[in-house]
Amino acid sequence: MAENPVKWLFLILASCLCFAFVLSESNLLIKKTYIVQMHKSAMPASFSSPLEWYSSKLKSVMSDTQSEGEGDGENRIIYSYQNAFHGVAAQLTEEEAERLKQEDGVVAILPETKYELHTTRSPMFLGLEPEESTSIWSQKLADHDVIVGVLDTGIWPESASFNDTGMTPVPAHWKGTCETGRGFQKHHCNRKIVGARVFYRGYEAATGKINEKNEYKSPRDQDGHGTHTAATVAGSPVRGANLLGYAYGTARGMAPGARIAAYKVCWTGGCFSSDILSAVDRAVGDGMEGKAIKHYALTNGKPTATLAFLGTRLGVRPSPVVAAFSSRGPNFLTLEILKPDVVAPGVNILAAWTGELGPSSLPTDHRRVRFNILSGTSMSCPHVSGIAALIKARHPDWSPAAVKSALMTTAYVHDNIHNPLQDSSTAAASTPYDHGAGHINPLKALDPGLIYDISAQDYFEFLCTQKLTAMQLKAFSKHSNMSCHHNTLATPGDLNYPAISVVFPEDTAISTLTLHRTVTNVGPPASHYHVVVSPFKGVTIKVEPKTLNFTRRNQKLSYKISFTRKSPQTMPEFGGLAWKDGVHKVRSPIAITWLPPF
Ligand SMILES: *[C@@H]1O[C@H](CO)[C@@H](O)[C@H](O)[C@H]1NC(C)=O
Ligand SMILES: *[C@@H]1O[C@H](CO)[C@@H](O)[C@H](O)[C@H]1NC(C)=O
Ligand SMILES: *[C@@H]1O[C@H](CO)[C@@H](O)[C@H](O)[C@H]1NC(C)=O
Questions:
Q1: How many Å apart are CA 6 and CA 241, to the nearest integer?
Q2: Which of 461, 454, 459 is nearest to 485 (CA)?
Q3: pLDDT tier, 479 (very low <50, low <70, confident <90, very high otherwise)
Q4: What's the CA gap between 590 and 202, in Å, rounded?
Q5: Is the shortest distance between the CB of 7 and ligand 2 below 6 Å?
Q6: How far away, in angstroms, is 465 Cα from ligand 2 center?
Q7: Residue 21 CB neighbour total at 10 angstroms
Q8: What angle do helix axes 225-234 and 377-394 make, rounded to 10 degrees?
Q9: Ligand nearest to the CA of 39
Q10: DSSP labels, 388-446
């Protein structure tokens, strides 16, 4: 095999150099993948299908229609999207993409992005100790009939964590299927794994083409990552000892009764946005109601869920703490929206592993294990997803924003020795820029008392405050007739978010900033809340009204909160606002930022 590694190295280097040369010579001819959003209702009646229309659009901008086999726009399409999004992913040169941008019916063109998986792999097993179950709450719940879409590296169906013994039949509204492929048979799907599909550079193309890389077409997890995250979200309880060669109690997901639909979008090289979009689009078509819980870890290295030490491990003090590698705020895109949202366990997480690869993921590791221990935002995300599934099961009518509000307003900000949550990277107290609203508290999140709800139109109104072009706005409004009303949100900070971030401008003439919020009563019909706000050095705060008296369930009441300049600070100031009724405490973090000069 490796008779002459030096020569090989040389050859590889030489070909890289050649390639680099070719690249610089003819950059304009290199095709890249672009996601093209189309305005579906602008399709002329002469086309029989959107795909036909998209193909003809592509053809009209193609530079090389003369050359053989290139004449058809359809050849350039690697995905066509039809449920959550309308358009295609297509291979285009830069020039072609520029021309396509000018075409009628084209809403937006984005070059594809590649995302990395956010895992810190434990190369060897770490010490295990009997673990207090992290999910006692889930036994009390009927958390079935929620299907969680897991967009990751696929799933290893043989794992005991995906055992469906005792589960009820799959709900009728579910239209998804299990793709067969190398090493993955339909019978691998059961009442626990209700869907498994693979997306690889157009393999799932609506055109019916099979990608040249069809050796990759199995939804089976040959990496371990997806099996681990899926089991963390919704793995069935697996009791017993010696599963790893170590004794321990029970491994289970956050929502053991929930079902899993696995969409394989990540490979050794990463995850491509055109594949991810296709999986989301398909999940909606499969019956996911547009609410597929996508892996936060895939969202651009700025996950909204971050990490803390496993809070349930007994005897660790202080616990939890924010992990050094946790993602941090602020949100530089829009300071008025505080990020991150919450922290959740993400360090040393025990869950199922693939049988196709050793626990270290190294090809030289010939050990085979049923479970593995990993850390990362990839592990934190499925904790939040699983808890979100439990909340959704308890409250099927809640919107995604309501579920998120429940997670945020019930999160805690103190550790088990009653100090503010520590940041392990500084050994000092963490702030909302590190922990957001705090550490998730599943039991409380099931009964939050009040929620801050946000509709699709509200999100659109928020985007209207973001200085986007009409074209960019159109890309966000599913119905092209959605338009900005401009008087509904005075500032981006008025989005009905469960966190409050106030930004004082340089202009000192502006002395008072006022934000508006609306809460919905999801607790007892007659509920009386009063407000408590922490003190700030830089501002005085006034909340109006100071009490909220509800008389019925789902009643909405609004309040406003005014911040008056007192003594501008050089550093951001943090605190919180809580509505209390004697049973519930509905807390929002507050961040106050002073833009320079001071
Ligand atoms: C699934 O779980 C049941 C009950 O614990 C057990 O009897 C059965 O053997 C398990 N099946 C597999 C394939 O592990
Ligand atoms: C936009 O159009 C859709 C259908 O084309 C319609 O259902 C919806 O009510 C319209 N929305 C507004 C705000 O006019
Ligand atoms: C709510 O009820 C309390 C006690 O009855 C009363 O003092 C308060 O003014 C009421 N709040 C509002 C906003 O009506």
A1: 49
A2: 461
A3: low
A4: 45
A5: no
A6: 22
A7: 10
A8: 30
A9: 2
A10: HHHHHHH-TT--HHHHHHHHHHT-B-B-TTSSBPEETTTTEE--HHHHTT-B--HHHHT
Q: How confident is the model at residue 15 (pLDDT cuts 50, 70, 90)?
A: very low
CATH code reported for the domain at 29-111: 3.30.70.80
* Coil, helix or strand at residue 238: strand
- The three-class DSSP label of residue 73 is helix
Q: Which fold has domain 450-594?
A: Immunoglobulin-like (2.60.40)
Give 482 Cα–ligand 2 centroid separation in angstroms: 7
Which 8-state DSSP code applies to residue 597?
Answer: P
Fold of 122-308+347-396: Rossmann fold (3.40.50)
Q: Which of 225, 228, 435, 584 is catalytic?
A: 225
Domain range summary for the chain, segments of one domain joined by +: 29-111, 122-308+347-396, 450-594
- 500-504 β-sheet, strand order: 500-504, 585-594, 573-580, 527-533, 547-550
Summarised one tens digit per residue, pLDDT across range 66-104 is 555 556 788 888 888 988 889 999 999 999 999 999 999
Residues in the chain: 598
Contact 305, 384 (CB under 8 A): yes
Residue 56 parent element (H or E): helix 50-61
Lining residues, ligand 3, CB within 6 Å = 528, 545, 547, 549
Q: Identical fold at 29-111 and 450-594?
A: no
Say if CB 295 and CB 268 are below 8 A apart. no
